[in-house]
Design goal:
Elements: H1 2-65, H2 72-94, H3 99-123, H4 127-130, H5 133-168, H6 172-176
């Protein structure tokens, strides 16, 4: 009888252990889902501002065309960089946790910022363009949008950091990969020139 009791007790302990493990996996899964959704939502806020910026850039270039007739190469480079960044942004929007997509996006954004910097540097040499009311308005809108992107980027990076910390902590790290939760990349700026929003001044 004692052996039967001991066997029953052992089964209860095993069952309780399995139940606790299942409960832990469920809680871990739900916690990671919540944190992943937070950084995806944070990216959606960035995406709104990026689309606004991508809409503004062609308007800026179109306005500048009449004044920069001999600078077609610069204008073409801006549009090409803008199109590449917009395409890379769409890939990230589809899956903000995709490390390859994020890496390609950061590279495209760095290239776009470089071409925009050259564009505005060149624009400074044309007084008529600097005095153009439409150019001034568009430039102010772009500056405002850049500032909003900076704030949204910080919120996104904070959300990604919380998610990564959660999935890397033991014992969650044991199950995270098996449950489909992989490391997410920050929206980091590697080019020191692009660390600041594009500065526009036609005063």
């Amino acid at each position: 009888m004692l052996s039967a009791f001991g066997g029953a007790t052992g089964m209860i302990v095993i069952f309780a252990g399995v139940a606790l493990l299942v409960l832990f996996v469920i809680l871990t899964y739900n916690g990671l889902v919540a944190l992943r959704n937070q950084f995806k939502n944070a990216w959606a806020q960035i995406d709104v501002q990026l689309k606004r910026r991508y809409d503004l850039i062609p308007n800026l270039v179109e306005t500048a065309k009449a004044f920069l007739q001999h600078e077609r190469e610069t204008l073409t480079a801006v549009i090409a960089a803008r199109n590449a960044a917009a395409h890379a942004s769409q890939r990230v929007a589809a899956d903000p946790g995709n490390t390859q997509a994020m890496g390609a996006f950061v590279a495209a954004e760095t290239a776009l910022s470089g071409s925009m910097g050259r564009f505005f540097g060149l624009s400074e040499a044309y007084p008529d363009l600097k005095g153009n009311a439409n150019m001034t308005q568009l430039s102010e809108e772009l500056t405002s949008t850049e500032n909003k992107i900076s704030f949204a980027r910080q919120a996104f990076n904070d959300a990604v950091m919380r998610y990564n910390i959660k999935r890397e902590k033991f014992p969650a790290v044991v199950f995270a990969g098996m449950l489909g939760f992989h490391h997410a990349n920050l929206f980091e700026v590697t080019n020191p020139v692009e660390r600041e929003a594009v500065r526009v001044s036609f005063k």
